[in-house]
Amino acid sequence: MAQAHHRKSNQSSVVAVSLLGDALVTYLALSLAYWLRFESFIKNFGVPPEGAYYQLYVPLLILGTLFLIATFGYLGLYNDKQILHLHRIYSIIFKGCIFWFFAYLGTSLALKFEPKISRIFVTLALFTSAGLLTLWRISLHKILLQKHFLPSLQKNVAILGINEDASKLFTAMSLDKNHPYNPVGIIYREDTKDEAKESDLSIPILGSENALESLVKENAIEILIIATGNLDRKRTLEIAAICERNYVAFKIVPTSFQVFLSGLSLQNISGVPIMGVETLPLDKLGTRAFKRLVDITGGLVGLILSAPIILTLSILIKRESKGSVFYKQVRTGRNGKTFNIYKLRSMKLDAEESNKAQWAVEDDPRRTRIGAFMRETNLDEIPQFWNILKGEMSLVGPRPERPELIEDFQYEIQHYQTRHSVKPGLTGWAQIHGLRGNTSLENRIRYDLFYIENWSIWMDVYIILMTLVRRKNAY
């Protein structure tokens, strides 16, 4: 799990470097186009616009840069799955520059920019941008393919099944380094044990499907691909549950019939079609960046506005109960990473003398008088604005649970671990529907999954507003 989190962090860093590099190269390309049009030997070609001084053009160059980067983002260039796909990167750069040419030129004519944008300048910018961006991305790609970088960008993949599809996929992934996948080996079904012994010696055999969960952990597997068609529905669900508990993506090499019926997205890995859940709304870089910007803004405003409330409540807590005003507790966050969550202490000092994790219940005798008020009004959660600023939480998301409780939940409740695919929140879809504390876990998970699958910024706004007025089961 730690390795997967580290790899995800590396991928995000590379995406950030590529985005910043694209922005810098684009600005340089537009500056080069300016020089070619207004300073080089072609400066007298046509009718140059009046007042086309570089310092006056700088705001237009910055606007053009932002416009092109936004276009690349919309076309998916900054998806972490594109990091090593050089041919896809070429395609997006070409499409993006063509779209940018018509959109930027059209916008400048419609809004009548000052100084006026030269059409020859925009035409030159099309070629300088496409050319320099391509050279920059080729250079970056060569660096990323070095042994020092490549392993940290590729996810460990295991294939379940001993057959032609499995062998073809493993070989294709091994030979093609232009994708973020590292084929680790093949897991055989018990009824194909003999075939496994006679299989291609160049393909590592990890072990039997009966030991799937331990094999996944031992080999730090992040993606499991099912390449056998003779799994019954019950066993398929069991394997999916194992993957979910261990934060492993579950994919299938499909038949044409499965593709037709599944409703899942189809992905191509080294020429082999793979079927699975590809992206959720909060998987997209642009979406995550926007949500993080909202979180930082909300966290800062929340801490500043709540400072007088925290001070007042701190005095009241101290008057009623000796001990610390603040209370911290280990919780599980995105991708299973633990962190310390902060609260205003609402219970007596000996509330958890048994050291056993337990939920609050209605009229909980462990609460202090001021604690009962804080929990009913959610004021005890105010310090979590600090967790939000640190990037451990979001304003909205599934509420984080304690690791010791999750140890049982991941086996008892179907799809429980899926809620850890996003950052936990200060409030959430389940909470505004009264699903908190000692309530149905199954229903809570169902509401959390609905939020993850259907996220939108307007949904977050609605949840925040409803949190202020809905207090069902807040005790």
In a few lines, what is going on in this structure?
This protein has 475 residues and is of the alpha/beta class. The chain has helices at residues 2-38, 54-74, 86-111, 119-144, 164-175, 193-197, 212-218, 233-245, 256-262, 285-320, 369-377, 384-389, 403-412, 429-432, 441-453, 457-467; strands at residues 155-160, 181-188, 205-208, 223-226, 249-252, 265-269, 272-276, 326-332, 338-344, 394-396, 425-427. The protein is built from 16 helices and 11 strands.
Describe the structure.
The protein has helices at residues 2-38, 54-74, 86-111, 119-144, 164-175, 193-197, 212-218, 233-245, 256-262, 285-320, 369-377, 384-389, 403-412, 429-432, 441-453, 457-467, and strands spanning 155-160, 181-188, 205-208, 223-226, 249-252, 265-269, 272-276, 326-332, 338-344, 394-396, 425-427. The protein is flat and about 85 Å long. Helix 5 (164-175) links the parallel strand 1 and strand 2. The longest helix is centred in the first third of the chain and has 37 residues, at 2-38. The protein is built from 16 helices and eleven strands. The chain is α/β, with parallel strands linked by helices. The strands form four sheets. A five-stranded parallel β-sheet has the order 3-2-1-4-5, sandwiched between helices. It has a two-stranded antiparallel ribbon with strand order 6-7. It has three domains: 2-144, no CATH class; 154-278, Rossmann fold, CATH 3.40.50.720; 285-467, no CATH class.
